[in-house]
Amino acid sequence: xxxxxxxxxxLSLTIWAWLAGLVLLGVILSxxxxxxxxxxxxxxxxxxxxxxxxxxxxxxxxxLKGDRRLLVFVALVPFLLIAxxxxxxxxxxxxxx
Length: 97
Fold this sequence. Notes:
The protein is mostly helical and about 100 residues long. The chain has helices spanning about 5-30, 40-60, 70-95.
């Protein structure tokens, strides 16, 4: 194996470890009441962790990190739509009508 392939394997294993750790953290946060947050706050934190995991998968395993900017833009549009939808859903919690 060349040093480039060693670095590639090391990077893949590092990303895998981060993904496994984020999954474990999400399960722990959803099952145990260790955060002093209401249930909706825990859901928001776990959704944020899931967004980070999706970003890691897209950048490293789908190889979007080295692709053209247009393809990255097309991949990021769903994240923007999700953020917009979440802001609409959670805006009722901040504004009393």
